[in-house]
Write a structure and sequence with these properties.
It is a single chain. The protein has 127 residues and is of the alpha+beta class. It folds into 2 domains: 58 residues, 2,3-Dihydroxybiphenyl 1,2-Dioxygenase, domain 1 (Roll), CATH 3.10.180.10; 55 residues, 2,3-Dihydroxybiphenyl 1,2-Dioxygenase, domain 1. It contains 2 helices and 9 strands, in the order E-H-E-E-E-E-E-H-E-E-E. A hairpin with a 5-residue loop joins strand 4 and strand 5. The longest helix is centred in the last third of the chain and has 13 residues. It is globular and about 50 Å long.
Length: 127
């Protein structure tokens, strides 16, 4: 069995798409818009076949997102090396995003950094 894609709702669809394309090398489709319901989405494809669907619709609830909460905690992106983790973490920091940990080697052996990027949602960069 293979996970086909992961999806997340966002308020600013274009800003989310731009982040995943600009910083993480994703490729976006042209988008989808259901004029009847107001639902909009983009699929972002990454190397190796992983896909992320970012979605938006009218009247969404945007609850506070504590970092230590139940549910999905983060999306992890393998960038290929410790040096690339460091480099990309620096670029994302310069763009004004919040680094919550790292870059560092974790107790279970991952070299990673964790960043709050899209509306309180966290991504992890790992080698």
């Amino acid at each position: 069995m293979v996970i086909e894609h992961i999806a997340m709702y966002v308020n600013d669809l274009e800003a989310a798409r731009d982040f995943f394309v600009s910083f993480l090398g994703g490729t976006s489709n042209g988008g989808y818009h259901n004029e009847k319901t107001g639902f909009r989405s983009y699929f972002i494809s990454f190397d190796g076949g992983a896909r992320l669907e970012i979605m938006n619709k009218p009247d969404m609830v945007d609850d506070r997102k504590a970092l230590n909460r139940t549910g999905y905690a983060h999306i992890a992106f393998s960038v290929g090396s410790k040096e690339k983790v460091d480099e990309l973490t620096g670029k994302i920091t310069e763009a004004g995003y919040e680094i919550v940990s790292g870059p560092r080697t974790t107790g279970d052996g991952y070299y990673e950094s964790c960043i709050v990027v899209i509306e309180g949602n966290q991504i992890e960069l790992t080698e």
